[in-house]
Design a protein that fits this description.
Helices cover 72% and strands 0% of the residues. By secondary structure, it is an all-alpha fold.
Length: 96
Amino acid sequence: MNTSIASCAVSANARIAAVALGAAAFMTLLLTHVSEPLAPLRLLTLALAAFATWAFCDEMGMRKPLNRAAFVFFAIAAIAKVQIALGLTAEFAGRY
């Protein structure tokens, strides 16, 4: 019985996405525990996470409906996080 798993070559796109996603997750965790207002750095970290998610979805195939849905939900979460990072009050956020 042959139980070997066929290996697939990992592309540079997948490696960059994995490193960027890991770095963005670590920076997000680090910046949530800092009390200083570091909104520009938080936005840059969110942009890095968006890039990593886009690269990962591109690698997995954006034509697949679940990958597109995950990317759309990530975009919605990213917009909400930008509103929080910029300090948008709840009464203005409720309008949108």
